[in-house]
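wait is this the right file?? whatever heres the structure
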């Protein structure tokens, strides 16, 4: 009885193939650790950078106990620095040109919300003049922006 070449390879080769497959078997588990690491790094980066994107003119807002406003569509922002300089968005504007520039930017929509961000050290006179100019030029939704967590206006003092 003679063996052919195919039979010899089939008899001895099948063992080698089985052992080879068990060592080099397909990986059936997905390693998600690198994905989680990348997502956590991105989350931290976005959490740090998001507050920096809200406003371009640096002012130190006074703190009050008032809550935050609900989101409104595309408000216009007027910022007043401690030295009295006035900004419309991120562009510095002369006080005499403020109402004209506001009307140009808003168009016919005078109901568009206007946020006034004034530095806590800014003169009350300048803040009042800017708000009066906005009111007399037809804007009806004028909001003074503050930070929360300041002293109470008549309630109990917050715990220290």
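ok assuming it is, sequence goes like this
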């Amino acid at each position: 009885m003679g063996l052919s070449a195919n039979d010899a390879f089939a008899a001895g080769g099948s063992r080698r193939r089985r052992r080879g497959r068990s060592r080099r078997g397909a990986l059936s588990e997905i390693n998600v650790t690198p994905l989680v690491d990348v997502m956590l790094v991105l989350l931290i980066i976005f959490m740090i950078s998001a507050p920096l994107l809200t406003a371009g003119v640096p002012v130190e807002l006074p703190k009050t106990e008032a809550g935050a406003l609900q989101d409104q569509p595309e408000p216009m922002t007027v910022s007043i620095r401690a030295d009295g300089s006035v900004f419309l968005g991120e562009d510095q504007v002369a006080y005499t040109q403020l109402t004209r520039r506001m009307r140009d930017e808003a168009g016919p929509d005078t109901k568009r919300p206007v946020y006034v961000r004034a530095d806590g050290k800014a003169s009350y006179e300048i803040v009042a003049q800017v708000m009066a100019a906005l009111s007399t030029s037809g804007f009806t939704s004028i909001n003074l922006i503050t930070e929360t967590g300041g002293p109470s206006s008549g309630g109990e003092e917050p715990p220290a």
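The beta strands are 63-64, 76-80, 86-88, 91-93, 114-118, 142-145, 147-148. so i think its the right one actually
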